[in-house]
Protein 1
Amino acid sequence: MQRQKVVILGGGSAGWMTAAMLAKTLGHSIELTLVESEQIGTVGVGEASIPPLALFNRALGINEAEFMAATQGTIKLGIQFEHWGQPGDAYLHAFGPMGKDLALTPFYQLWLRSHHGTPDDVSDFWRYSLNAQAAKANRFAPLQRIEGTPLAGLTHAYHFDAGLYAAYLRRYSEQRGVLRIEGRVERVGLNHSGAIETLHLASGQSIEADLFIDCSGISARLIEQALNCGFEDWSHWLPCDRAWAVPTRNPETLRPYTRSIAHEAGWQWQIPLQHRTGNGLVFSSRYISEEDAKAVLLSSLETEPLASPRLIRFRVGRRRKQWHRNCVAIGLSSGFLEPLESTSIHLIQSAIMRLVKLFPRSAGEVTVLREEFNRQSRIEFEQIRDFIILHYHLNQRGESPLWQHCRTMPLPDSLTHKLALFRQSGRLIRHQDELFTEAAWQQVLLGQGMTPQSWNPMADGVSEAQLSEYLANLRTLMDHTVAGLPEHQRFLERYCRAGGVPD
Ligand SMILES: Cc1cc2nc3c(=O)[nH]c(=O)nc-3n(C[C@H](O)[C@H](O)[C@H](O)COP(=O)(O)OP(=O)(O)OC[C@H]3O[C@@H](n4cnc5c(N)ncnc54)[C@H](O)[C@@H]3O)c2cc1C
């Protein structure tokens, strides 16, 4: 059988993650070329991830310690949201479960029952999260389970330098036969049915393929500029459209979590890597000027900047189709959801795995596979979108125009339904394959001030005394486990100390 020709345009994280996984899984039946332009460069941000990235690396056969050392990686146990509910508030969206279900009764329902009567202080909820306790104590070690118990251990993701990750995956891919061509695509040739036939480079070289993967970033050089696929704009729900990014010197302690700090017209991220801290201010140009936003960021840094701030403009929404004609968009070319929950690299990962699962063996099956790919991609984007909107919508941040807009704006029906159900009954629905768990939704809902009026009567099946003993035991186990963990920084030094500071 003749090998299909696949060309990836773009060598950012999307391009090289795609190249690596396709080479690993389909290298025997496709011929893979990647075109990138050093002159154009990459977006140069994207430093926080979520736990499934470990699965992607494991599928590629990449050793975790080697990956972390190569990318200046640190551990991420969750995100601390500061001032999102009311100014002065802070809560953690910690990865991993909360507490432990009691037979068939979800832990959360037990906690709601125990908490009834003190609805204003919800901080107790995080005492049942091992991740939250470890993050607060600045501690970490790989831990599958709490020893001698059925309780889950720690669930971690990484902070890492995505540029170094792309460089690492480039070596991986080239060793597995991927051909890299340096060059800038200047013109795209289409065939009679409107599909892409040829990429014409500035050097005069032309490249043909059966399938083109557009990893060209925000410019969407193939899917939009060449194929006019169309864009579904979600800025009425997520009004931020700019970010300033700046690296700073590390503080003395490297926290094992991302900080997300709400401001008048946006929010600030703080992401500790081994060699520096990534910072940025995501903001809406409708509510603050670019220059004022830069000043806000510079005046809120914890340590001194290592470079001048860089401005990135973006549009929130998704491409109408992630796979259009013979072009699949992966990465920023497929759409963008702002980095509040660090989901962009995950969207790359899941698009790649979807493509691997639905990769056509012959031309005859393309239509049906493409439709399925687009259906799944749309659902995934919309589910993550709702979770991000939730953070903005559920605020009590007074009268500043951005926050007032977000509090009062009409929501997507899917989110309205979820909120009504939770508020009245304490129940949450999570669709099959939905990325964010019930524990994730519970933390944001409670952390930003929505306490339900009821709980599932299943939780009434134990006596008050049994319930308080059960909760006390859980707390003791968690406190004891966290006390036995090493400090995050000590763990990094022993496990994955990175080499010298790269350029
Ligand atoms: C402000 C901000 C913060 C972010 N933070 C996070 C985060 O914390 N976590 C997370 O998961 N994600 C984050 N992201 C998203 C993340 O940066 C991207 O998803 C990720 O870097 C992938 O980018 P990409 O590869 O699609 O595009 P890029 O990195 O822009 O790469 C595009 C590639 O295409 C090439 N190219 C483009 N046009 C041409 C052409 N005509 N010819 C040849 N080559 C071409 C470029 O040279 C480059 O190699 C953030 C994004 C923004 C904007």
Protein 2
Amino acid sequence: MTETNSRRSFLQRSALGVAGLSVANLALVEDAVGSGIPAVPAVAPYAAKPLKPSTLSMNGISRRTMEEHYKLYVGYVNKANEILEALKTVDHSKANQTFSPLRALKVELSFAVGGIKNHEIYFDHLGGNGGVPTGTLLEQINRDFGSYEAWERDFRATGLAARGWVWLAYDLDRGALFNYLGDAQNTFPIWNAVPVAALDTYEHAYFIDYATDRKTYIDAFMKNLDWNAVEARFAAVPRKP
Ligand SMILES: [Fe+2]
């Protein structure tokens, strides 16, 4: 029996028993044959978003840096998809907290997906003219930090203290903004906090342009920040009244 005929036969045999299930659920039921456990449903793979043209002609962060940086981002996308494929066939019976294929895949998936999400925020809000935010974002910053200047001082200093990222994020539970620190793509996110700005402090973000002078790179980042993009991200956050 061919694979297609086998699938059709199974669906026909199962039709009475699964009346009312959607076509997608039928596929899950079919995949469950043998194990009795529903299989991982098919989800779309990650896809790399293109760089905005304005990010390739900035004053202070070179085109070469951006092009090399984008290659790393595409690498995170490819590896995330590779890991998701591997997870479909990983042996769950060998799960172990010291080492197991399942553990390794899930740990590294968090790194790859973090790399995707962090860089999509970062690239999206570069290519602007710096300055200061306006509207509800400025109001929230003033409320939670005291002033824009106080926020920027903390954001810049956190950028010197971090080994990977600074995220300006809105904690949905506290109803407040905070500058969170990350040492890697997957550390240290806070549950239920939505990042609206992300400063990459990995050396790959600035070494071509500034060698080890991260402070001057942060100056360049601030001058090229597109506050419109940050404000748009903040406007989409379901905030507490
Ligand atoms: Fe990066």
